[in-house]
Amino acid sequence: MNLSFEGMLLGLVLSVSIGPIFFALVQTSIREGLASGVFVATGIWISDFLFILFTYLGLSQLTQLRDNPTFSLYFGLIGGLFLVIFGLILFFKKPISIETLGKSPVRESSILSLWFQGFLVNTINPFTIFFWLTTMTDGVVGRSFGAKEVILFFGGIMGTIMVTDFLKAYFADKIRHKLQKKHLKFFGWFSGIIVIGFGLMIMYRGYYNGF
């Protein structure tokens, strides 16, 4: 199978998963428009790129770190706690008004804060490092990829992630005019509960099982 296409399939699987990254991206795009969603997505992409780079350059050390019970414990607790806090913010954040929905979106947050939100939500998520480490060990080391194969494989993954993240932000921005306040309130509650549950699960796994 073509390595780029194989990477695209893996990137598609990652893109359709529902988690904190999805809700951070969609929620921002609905509230503040496409441009703000793209700034959040950019932070996510940079985080993913750095994970790929660091896992490729220091695979053996990072694998040992991931398998260290102490690291799994504290990373799981800290990462899970951050996601619980982020989920609470989503849950209690006041939905935008109907009047605002009918107008062009206004960016409420600075570009830096939007970028940092995407970067931090992706970086602090233990499943992100687990995904990239597993992909690197199984896909690169296990199959003895050279530099060209690594570029094709991970280029396919990242290309798919970037395109699908942009589409999520685009369609979230487009449907904002069709939403009512009750829809926004429900989505805020729902996304907050999901992210809180995700954070609690990570804390539980970090404390009892490790990753």
Provide structural commentary.
The protein is an all-alpha fold and 211 residues long. It has one domain. The chain contains ten helices and no strands. α4 crosses α8. The two termini are 30 Å apart. The mean pLDDT is 76.
In short:
With 211 residues, this protein is mainly α. It has helices spanning 3-15, 20-32, 34-57, 59-67, 69-92, 98-101, 111-123, 126-141, 147-175, 181-209.
Helix content: over 70%
Number of DSSP E strands = 0
Number of discrete domains: 1
**What number is the mean pLDDT?**
76
Shape: globular
H and E string: HHHHHHHHHH
Structural topology:
Elements: H1 3-15, H2 20-32, H3 34-57, H4 59-67, H5 69-92, H6 98-101, H7 111-123, H8 126-141, H9 147-175, H10 181-209
Helix pairs in contact: 1-9, 2-3, 2-7, 2-9, 3-4, 3-7, 3-8, 3-9, 4-8, 5-10
Throw out a few tags for this protein.
mainly alpha, globular, 211 residues, single chain
